């Protein structure tokens, strides 16, 4: 049989900033051990150090220098699969400040917001750096990702996680990344130039719509990541009422695993259900508006109980019908 060793396969070039290595495991890399029950352990390889678990210990030196994808046995007989962690595995186990954007949503953002190599992207906020890693890998070292984070402690966690994933040298970080402390609503209007994509992972993305419209190139995409239906409604209606974006597209994704053993083929008992809603819209050219929707809203959709932003083609409510409101604005003194 032909030799299947990958020892002579060259490593991924460092200038690609992929966060991926080929070849034997080396000191300073992170590995992911998975036991027979599916429990996972991530740690950095250090010469002379030991890994401890309820199944005994392993010497790091037993792992260093071997090709990933092998099984190792601990001192107490526990068996572990050894691989380098994938990005999707890294982000769900890394240290957290804020909640992370899960891989199923990060993948949707990268694909459906069309993040491309060389893109100029703005992200708010950085959180723990999970989505940041996916965005940086997508834009590549020749793109630009500017991340705004309000809280310094979250920014510090994000920087550590991003630098760890991309194996950044001491004192360096990904060349495409510009991490800034500040409020996007305040900082974005002062930012130089225009951008191709804006990703809004924040509590009130609707308050940024005007600033985003000014900075997005025609054809550019805004993508909002929100947790609740009230946030979803507000951001969709604000984008729609602005008039300078295409019809907003809201959705969510759910992931269900399957159990497959011989004739026993059925849905698994675990499912990643609701994590967040996503909304995308494209920027129209200056002075242009999208075609009017041919399908009218359902009766009562914008009735007296609705107090949010109103699309331009929806007539305002009479003051008396709206209980002191008109166009969703409180008119009381």
TrEMBL record:
EC number annotated for this UniProt entry: 2.1.1.220
Region (Disordered): 282-333
UniProt cross-references to Pfam families, sorted A to Z: GCD14, TrmI-like_N
Molecular functions (GO terms): tRNA (adenine(58)-N1)-methyltransferase activity
BP GO annotations: tRNA methylation
Membrane-crossing segments per the record: none
GO cellular component, one term: tRNA (m1A) methyltransferase complex
Catalytic activity: adenosine(58) in tRNA + S-adenosyl-L-methionine = N(1)-methyladenosine(58) in tRNA + S-adenosyl-L-homocysteine + H(+)
PROSITE patterns reported for this sequence: SAM_TRM61 (PS51620)
Matching InterPro entries: SAM-dependent_MTases_sf, TRM61_C, tRNA_MeTrfase_Gcd14
Domain tRNA (adenine(58)-N(1))-methyltransferase catalytic subunit TRM61 C-terminal: 92-261
Entry binding sites for S-adenosyl-L-methionine: 128-131, 149, 183, 201
Sorted UniProt keywords: Methyltransferase, S-adenosyl-L-methionine, Transferase, tRNA processing
Bias kind Low complexity: ranges: 324-333
Main enzyme class: transferase
Alphabetical list of SUPFAM superfamilies matching this protein: S-adenosyl-L-methionine-dependent methyltransferases
Known partners and oligomeric status: Homotetramer composed of a dimer of dimers.
Similarity comment text for this entry: Belongs to the class I-like SAM-binding methyltransferase superfamily. TRM61 family.
Chain's role: Catalyzes the S-adenosyl-L-methionine-dependent formation of N(1)-methyladenine at position 58 (m1A58) in tRNA.
Protein name: tRNA (adenine(58)-N(1))-methyltransferase TrmI
Source organism: Nocardioides seonyuensis
């Amino acid at each position: 049989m032909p030799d299947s060793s990958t020892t002579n396969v060259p490593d991924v070039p460092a200038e690609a900033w992929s966060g991926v290595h080929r070849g034997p495991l080396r000191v300073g890399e992170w590995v992911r051990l998975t036991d027979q029950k599916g429990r996972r352990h991530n740690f950095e390889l250090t010469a002379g150090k030991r890994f401890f678990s309820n199944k005994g210990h392993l010497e790091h030196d037993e792992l260093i220098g071997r090709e990933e994808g092998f099984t190792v046995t601990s001192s107490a007989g526990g068996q572990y699969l050894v691989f380098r962690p994938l990005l999707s595995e890294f982000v769900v186990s890394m240290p957290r400040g804020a909640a992370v954007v899960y891989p199923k949503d990060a993948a949707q953002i990268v694909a459906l917001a069309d993040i491309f190599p060389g893109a100029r992207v703005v992200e708010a906020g950085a959180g723990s750096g999970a989505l940041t890693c996916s965005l940086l890998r997508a834009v590549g070292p020749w793109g630009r990702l500017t991340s705004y984070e309000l809280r310094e402690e979250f920014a510090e966690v994000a920087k550590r996680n991003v630098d760890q994933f991309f194996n950044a040298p001491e004192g360096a970080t990904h060349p495409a990344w510009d991490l800034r402390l500040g409020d996007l609503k305040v900082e974005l209007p002062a930012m130089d130039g225009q951008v191709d994509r804006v990703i809004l992972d924040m509590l009130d993305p609707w308050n940024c719509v005007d600033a985003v419209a000014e900075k997005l190139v025609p054809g550019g995409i805004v993508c909002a990541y929100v947790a609740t239906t009230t946030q979803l409604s507000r951001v969709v209606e604000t984008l729609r009422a602005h008039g300078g974006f295409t019809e907003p597209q809201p959705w969510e994704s759910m992931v269900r695993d399957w159990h497959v053993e011989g004739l026993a083929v059925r849905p698994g008992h675990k499912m990643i259900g609701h994590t967040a809603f996503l909304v995308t819209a494209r920027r129209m050219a200056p002075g242009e508006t999208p075609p009017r929707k041919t399908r009218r809203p359902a009766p009562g959709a914008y009735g007296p109980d609705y107090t949010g932003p109103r699309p331009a083609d929806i007539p305002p409510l009479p003051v008396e019908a709206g209980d002191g409101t008109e166009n969703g604005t409180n008119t009381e003194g």
